Amino acid sequence: MKSNLEAVLNGLKSYEEFTWHQIKTMTHDRGKTKNHSVKLEGLTKEAQNRLTQIKSDDIAEVFSLRFNNLFRVIGIRDGAVLYILWIDPDHKVCKTSH
């Protein structure tokens, strides 16, 4: 858990200097966007159920930040703030990569 927390903190720090537009248009080595919105139907059933449990299933999408090949942080974006819902070290919250 400590290494995941360190990865999250370091990953979030790496995005501090960027605007949301810059974050959304960053690409990885294959030219695909690293960070992007995910419609709720793109989440696993377990993740969708969790949103219902925490009374957040009325949103249209969540936002995924990519820290490395599999590691993601997923949250609800509200203006300049990302409210973190999941630390996803194995890319298992979303059904697909995009």
Q: Could you characterize the architecture of this molecule?
A:
The structure is a single chain. A four-stranded antiparallel beta sheet has the order 1-2-3-4. The chain has one domain. It is an alpha+beta fold. The mean pLDDT is about 90. About 30% of the residues lie in helices and about 25% in strands.
Please compute the radius of gyration using only Cα atoms: 13 Å
Please give the number of β-strands. 4
* Large-scale geometry: globular
Strand content: 25-35%
Number of helices: 3
Q: Quick check: average pLDDT?
A: 90
Give the end-to-end Cα distance, rounded to a whole number of Å.
26 Å
Helix/strand order: HHEHEEE
Give the biggest beta sheet.
Answer: 4 strands, antiparallel
Q: In which order are the strands of the major sheet placed? A: 1-2-3-4
Classification by helices and strands: alpha+beta
* Poorly predicted tracts of residues: none
Percent helix among the residues?
Answer: 25-40%
| Tally of domains | 1
Quick recap:
By secondary structure, the protein is of the alpha+beta class.
